[in-house]
Amino acid sequence: MQPPTLADVPHLGQVVPSLLAALGVPGCGNTLRLPEARSAGVLLVDGLGWELLAEHAADAPVLTELAREPLRVGFPSTTAAGVAAIGTGLASGEHGMVGYTFEMPGTGVLNALRWCSHEDGSDLRGALPPREVQPLPTTFERAAAAGIDAAVVSAAKFRDTALTLATQSGARYAGVHALGDLAARTLSVLDGRAFCYAYHGDLDLLGHVYGPGSAAWRAQLRQVDRLVESLVDGLPAGALLAVVADHGMVAVDDQLDLEDVPELLSGVRTFGGEVRARHVYTEPGAAADVLAAWRAVLGERAWVRSREEAVAEGWFGHTVSDRVLPRIGDVVAAARGRFGMVRGLAEAVETSLIGQHGSLTTAEQLVPLALAQG
After folding, report:
1. What InterPro entries does the record point to (predicted)?
2. Whole-angstrom distance, CA of residue 171 vs CA of residue 348
3. CB within 10 Å: which end of the chain, N or C, has fewer?
4. What's the pLDDT tens digit per position in 157-173?
């Protein structure tokens, strides 16, 4: 039982290196064959899956017209990994953001969005400095070194977060508060010799709370389409804009609470990941038994692999560095269909959400690549 084969689909990590190559930055490969540009920007719409856009094309006519092909985001299909792919041009096996939560040996399970302990919520910025967790050069640093103005346009509240420092170092940060100043600041940056990364997260939020395709989600999609329309209409001459996403989303209606199944807890030291993509860290010597138990209990509801199998099958990209390998679970489980592996007591908020993502299905893996030129 194999996940969908998407190796021929370009990876999200190829977008920014291709944009920088279009700007003439040395050492960047233009694998997406983008045209030369004076300035370039990427707008990441959190949670906008390729299949969701196709299903709701009438709510997003501008995006639908511009989105001619999909990208794949790699495993896990989650925001920390997607933002890091933008910020490094690499897949999770190299940049190291291998989950919404994942174990950092010697420290515990890190929540990569909040940079806190997933077990007790304690702040881990001191114990895990962001540039030690993700030490590779960022795409923003490469742009700045080539004399290009590198800027991030995103919510003001994210300015000094650890994930921002880990993945967006080298950029000047323009903190914004709503769609209006997001559009205005992005266009202002693109009016010069610049590279700009802009982020919008509200579609993902409403998908989690109300479900992808819900009335609230569709209303937000229409607002996103107006945002894209205003950016396209205002693009300066010579500017190139790519609109992408970090993952798609599915509505989970088949939950299994891991805490209620003794067979899934035996030999398990701790958990990482999220509802649709689980890292299972085992007690010494228990990995084989845990793998067998998880395969037996989950059956066809999930793809279940040992760490070695997942790496060999390329789940985390072509390369998994020695630095990153211990962060991957001894057992890794990726949900199929509308299945979710919840932890009702330990992860009450996450368990309550309707929309989920993280796995290897095409609904979660494929996102749009929409291109426009000024």
Report:
1. Alkaline_phosphatase_core_sf (IPR017850), Phosphodiest/P_Trfase (IPR002591)
2. 35
3. N
4. 999 999 999 999 999 99
